[in-house]
Each structure stands twice: as structure tokens, then as C-alpha cells.
Amino acid sequence: VFPETSLRVTGVDFLKSQNTQQHHTDGYNIKSLVVRRGQPFQVQLSLSRELRAADKLSLRFGIGENPMKNRGSLLSLKPEREDFNGWKISVVERNGKECLLSVTSSPNAPVGKYNLYVKTGSNTYKPENGVIYLLFNPWCEDDVVYMANEAEKEEYVLNDTGYIYVGSAYSIYDRPWNFGQFEEFVLDACMYLLDKSKLSLAQRRDPAHVSRAMSALVNANDDSGVLLGNWSGNYISGTSPMDWIGSVTILQNYYKTKKPVRYGQCWVFAGVLNTVMRCLGVPCRCVSTFDAAHDTEENLRVDVYLNEKGEKLNSLSLDSVWNFHVWNDAWMKRTDIPNGFSGWQAIDSTPQEQSQGRFQCGPCPVKAVREGDVYLPYDAKFVYAEVNADRVYWIVKKVNGKDKYFKVGTETQAIGKNISTKAVGQNRREDITREYKYPEGSKEERMSMQRAYSFIRPSGLTPRSGYASTVQTLGGNTQPLVPKEPVTKTGLDLEISNTEPLHPGNPLELAITVRIAAPGTWTVDLTGSSQLQYYTGQVQANLGTIKETISLEGPSEMQIPLKIPPDAYMKTLSSVEDEVLILVTAIAEVKETNDKLTKETSMRFQYPPITVQMPETAKLYNDFNCAFIFKNTLNVPLENCKLLVEGLGIFKMTTFELGDIMPGRIMKSEIICTPTRLGDKKIVAKLISNQIKGISTEKGIYITE
């Protein structure tokens, strides 16, 4: 054969704009081609001469360090040949020296970075930038992450902004969050995590393995992953968890330094894991549970200890109820467990408990939580307890110099309330509690609970954390199999509320309403206390207590005020680095019948708003002006104010140092914006100061050509 007739490739065109539009990957800010598995993409070859029937031509796709055919990490595809590992390639058209090929990867191909080169006879051509990123494909019916509904894919895969719901069950609020899965280096950071996970090629085919590995790698606990958790209140050596407004800076910093970023708390872990899963092509949402149980030693109960004034004690409780906890649901068909448990799977990257020796959690089928099938992998008992535990209140009294514990109430419906996520295609909260639990008191709920208890009970009495449980010493496990709300003889009920807005710097006007349903004259001893606590339930300060004995003519109610002066809490508010909530605990005891009831409510402070002024639409690459306006309507100065702003596809994360803002003062910050991407975009702003951690807002803008 004469050399001049041997076939050589002179160029490869990856037809990026056409392929990425068809694959819904045109958002990724990256040079290389990004495509989804199980769906055809085209490449155009330029050849040294026309292609002939006798020519040998093959495309080779290699993944990993040292690709080999017998390991499945090197695929050699010849046109019109039977498929290789589920991959196919065909000639679409030949036109002189040009040849258009169509490549279809397998719908269960390993996800990751592939290197492409072209072999013609003994010649090998390596295109420059010949890296192809292959992702999961929710648009492909044969992919286990397939999602039929178009609007849901738009939200759970392609939306790069959203909200994370925080606060307390009494006052839920939304924290805008920029997921930013298409931003520069974010996909590369995810590929780095995939390599770091040491998943085998076979495991990289399966979103269950991938999501479990990512839940471990988003926290830094045992694998120098992305984020270091810190709940200490001291963040001087890093960024306070309250100061993030999105995942982009975190993942970019991590990719640049390959060292854990400081610091995260649960909503930051969930925000970053959401970015990673969406970036890899797995539909994913952030899920917030209010009053979530933690570390219940799998005995499905949380013990809360109060002193005689009714104030919660930190030191005794190993277990706790967090005002809210945020994890994620990832969407997939589970091929490793019996049918009927596909769909949403809970995954959690907040480091709380080790699972199989690592800080990872899930994927746990949400349906298994609802049905009580808590033996299913992974970590279903743990997730079940987070949303279904009971809360038991004990008063600790000194009797002859020794601590004695008296039970003053059991709440069986207090845990796992208002489970929330952002609604599809709308900027509002959607309540998904029904996906996790049957209605309280329904027949299905009772059956589900009995099922769960049959799996949890036997191991439930051995402490899971390795240290002795405090629970056994308090009168063993006296719980009935299906606990019900204790029905009091008098129909005693308590409600806690605020009668004036809770503005920092003002007195906190709180109230406890005592109700009695039974006719007659009743004497009620009421103990009320107010404290400041972190969202994890850690008490930071005692603010004040009341003790009153009231007489009620049933059926009736009476409102008892509990007023906290600003001096009682402002110092704590200014000195802590985290957002704090106001915890009110009330204990009522009816003298005549010995009925006891305990109730607690957490509330958040209310803050003045940030206003964003900018046009509703703008043209691509045309500058526009955006102004942030904030008026301090409180009667206290806000010290060391910082304004954090970010607009994906508009401008990078920017911080304005604003110093102190005195009462009544108006502050205005401006930024010039240059949109680089089309469509609906959002600008997110957050103000933090010594006194206030959580004022945030967002505003949308539509970018046209």
C-alpha cells in the first residue's frame, strides 16, 4: 500500500452548539463537549481523501488513567458494526473528504470524562480538546434517572437557582440559593469528586452508588471532601456558614485548592450536594424538615430536659431536635432493591452519623420511609427516625441532693413537620410531608409505624453512638407500640405566640394561651421560659421566665404575657456568629387532676427588607445598572454590615463593606451588570451584620438577544 493512499484524519468537529442544544447541556461554561448518555450526538471527520469500503475506521473512547478493552474502560467503535458495550456508531453522510458520524452511548454507560481518538488503519488521530463529558440523562427512557415530566426536569436538572427553606415550623422562610451547576469549573469539580470517590466503572453506571459517594464527598469528614462542618459559633478561620449565598464560590475554591472549604452547616451541605447532583444529570431537590430529630439512638425518641424554671438544659441531651434540617432527594429507579421503591431517594451530606464507616447517608427511598420499610438500603432507619421520633420532656429536680427526673409530657406528632421544597416552576414553597408520612392518626400511618417498629425495636435498646445511653436510667423504655397523643382529663391545651413583631432592639412581646375544654373550675400552674438557641437546638442564652397559678372556668382560655426586654438578649444577639431563634417553653399542670402538658415553639426575629432596583429585561452583553437599597428601620445600629451579591450569568460574587448603619439610615450600593447568558436570570443579595445574620432577597431579570 502506498503511503499517499493510506487514510488519515485531518480534523474532528464536535459540532458543539448543535449537540449541546439537543442534549440540554448548552448551559455548561466549558470548552469541551458535554453530552448525556443513551442519546445520539454527531461528530464530523475531515479526511485526507474520500472514505472507501475497504477502509478501516474506528472511534476509540477511553475513560480513566489507563483505558483497556478487557476492563470496559476502552471502547472501540466501528461504523455499522454491532454495538460494543451498548454503544453504537453509524455514518450519517459522506461528502467528499468529509464524513458525518452519529454516536449513541449506552443508557447505562459509566458517567465521566472520556478521551476520544480516531484510528484509521495504522494511523491514530488525537483531536485537540478531545475530551467528552458524559452525564446521566433524565430525557432518555432507558436511563434509570429518566423523568417523564418536562417541567420537573426544567426545575430539578436545569434550574441553577432556587430556595432553601429554613427558620422554624412556626415561621418558615426561604433563603435564596444559587446552585450554579453550569458555572465555570463546577463540572470539573464534580468530575474530580467522581475520580476521588474511587467508584469502580460499574458503580459509575448507577446513580445510587454515585449519589451515595457524593453525599460522603461533599463533607470533609473522612475524605478531605468539599466542605468542613462547623457548629461551634467560631468561624474566624474561614467563612461563616451564614455568609454563603450559593454553591459556586465553594466548588470553585475547592477545585482550585483541592482542600476542604471552611465552613458549612446543613443548608450549605444540601445546597452544594444539590449542585453536584444536578450538574451530573441526576434530578435533585433540597428538602427541609422542621423539628427534625437527631441522634435518637434508633429508639425513636428524643429526650428534652428542663430545669425547674422550665428552661431547656443543653448538657444532658445526647439527642436533639433541630429547628430545621436540610437534605436532598435524588430521582432514580432503584435496581438494587425490590420493585416499588423507585422515585425520590433521600441523600444527606451533613456529617451526623457514620454509615458503613463513612459520613454518608442514602440513597434512602422516600417511599420506604412512608411505608415503614426501614430495613431497605441505605440508612432508612436513620431517616425514618429524623421525621418520626417522639419528643419526651423531663423536669430535673434536686431531691436530697440527687438529680431526679420527672416526665412532664410526650409529644408524638411534633417531629418531622412541614417537609418543604421549592415548587416546580414557581417561586413558592411546596409541602411534601405526605410523600414522607401518612396523615397523623390514619390507619396507614399506624400500619407503617408498626412495620417500622418491628425492624427498629430489637436493636433500638443498644446505644448506637458507642457511649452509654442516658435513656435507660430514666425508667427504661415504657413506650406503647403505637403511641398516641396523651388525652388529658380536662382537655388541657397550650399555644405560644408573639403579640408584636419580633424586631431586634424591641421588647419581645410573647404570650402563652392556656385552654381548658372540660366544664368546672380548674387551677393551673403555668411555667414559661424564653431562651435564644441555634437551629441545632443548642441553647445560647436564658432570657426570662414566668411562674403563675391561674384559675379557669372551663371551657375557656386565658392569655398570659411573657415580655423580654431588649437588654436581656441584644448582647447575645450581637456576639454570636449564627442566626438565633427565640425558643419559648411552657409547662402546665392542672392541680385537681394532675394533668401535665409541655409545649415549645421556636420563632425567628423579623428584619427590614433589602430592595433591588433594576430593569425587568436587558439585552445580552449590554450593561445595565442594579441598585441595592436598605433602610435600617430598627431602633438599634447594625454594626459591621456586609452586603453579598451574586447574579449567575450576570456578575460574579461581590461583597460591599458598609460599616455601621445607624437607626433610620438608608444605604444604597450599585453595581454595573453585563449579562452573558440568555433567559430568566436572578440576582441574589444578602445583608449580614453583628446583630442580624439573615436578611436576603432576590430579583429576576429576563435577558434577550
From TrEMBL:
The keyword Acyltransferase applies. Homodimer. Gene3D superfamilies: Immunoglobulins (2.60.40.10), Transglutaminase-like (3.90.260.10). Belongs to the transglutaminase superfamily. Transglutaminase family. Binds 1 Ca(2+) ion per subunit. It comes from Prunella fulvescens. PROSITE patterns: TRANSGLUTAMINASES. Pfam families: Transglut_C, Transglut_core, Transglut_N. Keywords: Acyltransferase, Calcium, Metal-binding, Transferase. Its EC number is 2.3.2.13. Its cofactor is Ca(2+). This is Protein-glutamine gamma-glutamyltransferase 4. Ca(2+) binds at N388, D390, E440, E445. It catalyses: L-glutaminyl-[protein] + L-lysyl-[protein] = [protein]-L-lysyl-N(6)-5-L-glutamyl-[protein] + NH4(+). GO terms for molecular function: metal ion binding; protein-glutamine gamma-glutamyltransferase activity. SMART domains: TGc. Transmembrane segments: none annotated. The gene is Tgm4. The active site is at C266, H325, D348. Residues 258-351 form the Transglutaminase-like domain.
